[in-house]
Amino acid sequence: MTDQPQSVTPPQPFLERARRQLRGLYFGRDREAIRFQFAMLCVDVAILGFFVAGPYLRKGPAYIVIDYVVAAVIAFELAARMLVAPTLRYWLMRPMTWVDIVILGTLLFPGQLHNFAFLRVLRIWAISQSKLVTLLLVRTGYGRIEDVFQACVNFLVFLFVVTGFVYSNFFYGDEGVAGFVDALYFTVATVTTTGFGDIVLPGTLGKLTAIVTMIVGISLFVRLAQAIVRPYKVNFPCPQCGLARHEADAVHCKACGHILNIPDEGA
After folding, report:
1. Dihedral, 21, 94, 124, 139 alpha carbons, nearest 10
2. Are residues 219 and 164 part of one domain?
3. 30 class by beta-carbon count within 10 Å (0-12 exposed, 13-18 middle, 19+ buried)
4. Residue 229's Cα: distance from chain center in Å?
């Protein structure tokens, strides 16, 4: 009687093992994955704090060191997201991929690309899109304000992106914090259509910046007001017609009449 040869599973390549582990950390819901996602969220918040404080710190001796440390972290995030993406095309088609590439360029070449540094504020939007943030809102009983939270984030992102653009292109040479404060003051006065007129951006670029700021800013402000006033609805796709938004206590789908079984958030 001859022994049957045992099948030996060939070891997976290192890249495949790394991809599988990273997918588990980024998309998993076990304790280890939640800890990793929370740690990355904290890192992103710290990076955002560095970006916001950049105009105040850029004259300090440690600024360039922190700058390159942040660049290394963002480069790691880019590489990790590329590994966990289903395809390279999917990774390249995501807007935040190109935003992070531009941000990485501004960190590696701060002197040459400082005019694009205002895009760093888009990290706020990236943080708000984290599934962990949504999970925390639901777990802490604040799932009802998810739409309001997202509208606030969109408004703040726009406000600080415009502020960064105005600062980079019109007030970058000012000493201290005066330039950044002037840029923020102009943006708020323009978005609210107050228009005091004590700070006016020169030239055609300045006029176009004010026009875009007023139009988009008012639209986002109205969207925020609608999110606050509008009755709360839950996201629960109807099995029959696919309608996603329903009243929290809905029993039947208002589009097709199908019986719904919406789980309670507190359950």
Report:
1. -50
2. yes
3. exposed
4. 24
Phi, psi of 233 (to 5 degrees): -130, 150
Which of 204, 206, 195 shows the shortest CA–CA distance to 169? 206
Averaged pLDDT, 227-247? 71
The last residue of one of the domains, among 121, 141, 161, is 141
CATH code, 164: 1.10.287.70
CA-nearest of 126, 135, 134 to 45 is 126
59 pLDDT tier (thresholds 50, 70, 90): low
pLDDT digits (tens, 9 = 90+) for 113-125: 766 777 777 777 7
170 lies in some domain: yes
The stretches of the chain forming alpha helices (DSSP H) are: 14-27, 31-52, 54-57, 63-84, 88-93, 95-108, 123-128, 131-139, 146-166, 178-191, 203-229
**161/74 same-domain check:** no
The residue range of the domain holding 258 is 233-267
